[in-house]
Amino acid sequence: MNVLVVLIPISLILGGLGLAAFLWTVRTDQYDDDQGNAARILLDD
Amino acid sequence: MTSACPACAAAPLAQEVASGPALQFSLPTIHCAACIGKIERGLRQITGVQDVRVNLSLKRLSVTGPVNPDRVQQTLSDLGFEAYPLDLETLNKARDNVGRALLIRMAVAGFAMMNVMLLSVAVWSGATDATRDLFHLISACIALPVVAYSGQPFFANAWAALRVRRLNMDVPISLAILLATGMSLFETLNGGEHAYFDAAISLTFFLLIGRYMDHQTRSAARSAAKELAALEVHTAERVLADGTETVAVSDIALGDILSVPSGARVPVDGVLMTQSALLDRSFLTGESAAIAAEAGADLQAGEINLAGPIQVRATAVGQDTTLRRMAAMVETAENGRNSYTALADRAAQVYAPAVHLLAFAAFLVWVAATGDIRHALNIAIAVLIITCPCALGLAVPAVTTAAVSRLFSAGFLVKHATALERLAETDQIVFDKTGTLTQPTVIAPDAFTADEKAVGLALAQASHHPLSRAFAVALRDVTPAALTEVQEIAGQGVCANWRGSTVKLGRGAWLGADFDGLGLRMDNTPAKPIEAPEAVRPGVAEALQALNLPAEILTGDNDTPAQRLAKALGLPVTANARPDDKLRHLKDLADRGHHVLMIGDGLNDTAALASAHASIAPGKALDAARTAADVIVLTDSFADLPLILRVAKATQRLSKQNFAIATLYNCIAVPIALAGFATPLAAALAMSISSITVLLNSQRMRYL
Question: Which residues of B form the catalytic set?
Fold first, then answer.
């Protein structure tokens, strides 16, 4: 069970990284135009 | 120019002038990648445009660079897109900080939920003693700060309701979150078997999803409606001894002489000082024909000056103008609407006391039966959590969000939170005529030669008269001829010099012809008539057929045009109705138990729009009318009008289904909780499954 000492902090850190990444996307306005971004990938230019 | 500080101000100002402010347009008809490409490529061709960006979700376009807004709009209409300029000032004010804060709270709760769930899985799979206590303790470390941060919107709402001694949905929610967290902390510290941290956090997370969706739909629709550039005048030109100055309308004093340029609105009530004038009163009264006025005539605020510049002496300012009196009527009418209780609130009024009493009764019975207060409290909390407040909290917002975005993609803005519920209840429709059912149009005659068309267009472009504008639209494929000495004769028409001969566009009598309507005369050849029927807005006939509700027309226009339209559409009509007549008519209908849907665009409809059970206004309606309406139609055609009512009815049906689903889960889960068999695992399952069922059920709106 000693492995828990390592695994629990790792899971928390990984989750925290995900949260930090999400906060970054919110702060840089990446959810402003989800439909547009989905459509733009089809454009050539 | 000398400056005390040469380095500051000058440089950034110059830069701003060079690049120009960003222009924003609303584009209700864009829907795919091809539209984005077409618009962005097309607008980059215009000189001066530095950056173009289409936002497909908001159906909005922003253009930066020193470029003329009219030019952009012209290009867009040439590309085949309807465009409405947006008011930048209101746009900048409406930055959405609340929505972002909710999104971050939701993300934090989601992160915490995942981690606590992982730890809970270990406990559910049979961790005991020290390991279980350790997991509970770590869960507590994650859950406590997250509940304190993410739960704030619910706590604030609940507190606001409790302070005025009322119950809303947030009271049982806050109580469940706080009691579950508090009890779990107590159990954790005392080595207890059950902790509800996962339930407390997932409750917060699911409810924040609902709250965020609710906020998103409402704010997007409301701000888009506000942003459509204001049509009303906020400044006026005051005539002084040595020229004119621009003043705010609120600063105009009685007796001030004001100059009104052609095409502008009269800012206050006043007396006409100029010899003669031609005015468009349709927004105020619904009259479709332009009104000619002589010096000394009374003008009302809001009328549009169609001919040359005029001067007006102010006779009523501020609160006394006709415009303001109408605004006051709107306010009184709106108070009635605000007292409408939304479906969710009605549900909360039944649900909140019932849940509290049930949990309290469970506590008392278990204390009486076993004498174990700790166990009884555990059961009471299990009841509070398991009654699925999150499914109930999601029931309405999930459906409304789906419905509003469905309508948005069809070109309708839903502004009012309870609009869809009220629309679903309507059983009678009242239409305004001018500007709503009809639009001024002119049919370009095929018999015209290319020269006549070119001259006609050039003459039409010189005037602000609605018929001239409509004629210009009918001839938009033609290149205008070069005219000199263009002159507008009030009430008659426009004349000019073209290649040495006189050309005239105007009333038949003025042209010396034997017809009354609009005509074109080239030099000395006989005048040719131009057909100008008041055209029914596209899609009206189809919409009326599909709506299948009793409808009538209520107009301020004269009998003749009103009867003509009534015959064409087969609807009963009341002509010469003043704003208070309209209001009284709606009140009569309401007294007879009808729920009236009012569809109108003018200032004379505003009070009626606000007092009707539900209301719809076209996108080109006056600012005040758009503010008073629940739904705004951005497209030119009314063909999709029945969709609004269909979606509204479906919204109500799906909301009720959602409540039924949540109640069904309660009927199964509550007896289990009351009997004391509800474990944290059962609570987590009941909560997640009911919330997800409700969310999925709401998505059926897409297939309407």
Answer: 432
Alpha-carbon distances, residue B67 vs B20, B44, B72, B370 (angstroms): 7, 11, 8, 80
* Long-range contacts of A5-12, Cβ-Cβ distance < 8 Å, separation of 24 or more: A8/B138, A11/B115, A11/B118, A12/B115, A12/B142
B107 at interface of A, judged by CB pairs closer than 8 A: yes
Distance CA B651, CA B396 (A): 8
Q: What is the mean pLDDT of chain A?
A: 83
The CA distance from A9 to the nearest CA of chain B, in Å, is 10
Give whole-number Cα distances, B41 to B22, B36, B45, B584, in Å.
Answer: 18, 8, 7, 52
**Alpha-carbon distance B704 to B699, whole Å?**
10
| Closest of B674, B673, B700 to residue B687, by C-alpha | B673
Cα separation, B47 vs B63, in Å, equals 12
Q: Determine contact, residues B529/B515, Cβ cutoff 8 Å.
A: yes
pTM over 0.90: no
* CATH T-level fold of B411-439+536-639: Rossmann fold (3.40.50)
Return the CA Rg of chain A. Answer: 18
Tokens of B543: 């919409």
Please choose, from the candidates B22, B17, B28, B26, the residue with its C-alpha nearest in 3D space to the C-alpha of residue B89: B22
Measuring CA to CA, how many Å separate A24 from each of A17, A21, A29, B111?
11, 5, 9, 14
CB B168 within 8 A of CB B127: no
Residues of chain B with CATH 3.40.50.1000: 411-439+536-639
Which fold is adopted by the domain B235-332?
A: 2.70.150
Condensed to tens digits (0 to 9), the pLDDT of residues B158-174 reads 899 889 887 777 888 88
What tokens appear for B238 in the block? 């005051």
- Using a CB-CB distance cutoff of 8 angstroms, which residues of chain A are in contact with residue B104? 23, 26
Q: What is the dihedral of CA B659, B665, B667, B671, to 10 degrees?
A: -140
In CATH terms, B442-532 corresponds, of 3.20.20.70, 3.40.1110.10, 3.40.1190.10, 3.40.630.10, to 3.40.1110.10
Phi, psi of B304 (to 5 degrees): -100, 130
Say yes or no: A25 contacts chain B, CB-CB below 8 A.
no
Q: Where are the alpha helices (DSSP H) in B191-321?
A: 197-227, 282-285
Query: Which two structure tokens, joined as six digits, stand for B627?
Result: 């503010």
| Angle of CA points B350, B353, B354, to nearest 5° | 75
- For chain B, percent of residues with pLDDT exceeding 70: 85
Amino acid at B236: A
The answer to whether B490 touches B277, Cβ cutoff 8 Å, is: yes
How confident is the model at residue B156, as a pLDDT? 92
Count structural domains, chain A.
1
A36/B54 Cβ within 8 A: yes
As for the ipTM of the complex, it is 0.83
Q: Do B58 and A33 touch (CB under 8 A)?
A: yes
The parent domain of residue A19 ranges over 1-41
> Which of A12, A18, A36 is nearest residue B56 as measured by Cβ atoms?
A36
- What is the CATH number assigned to the segment(s) B19-86? 3.30.70.100
B36–chain A Cβ distance below 8 A for any pair: yes
Rg over CA atoms, chain B: 32
B514-567 pLDDT, tens per residue? 776 778 888 777 777 777 667 788 888 888 888 888 888 888 777 887 888 888
**CA B625, CA B619: separation in Å to the nearest integer?**
10
The answer to whether B154 touches B212, Cβ cutoff 8 Å, is no
Give CATH 3.30.70.100 domain extents, chain B: 19-86
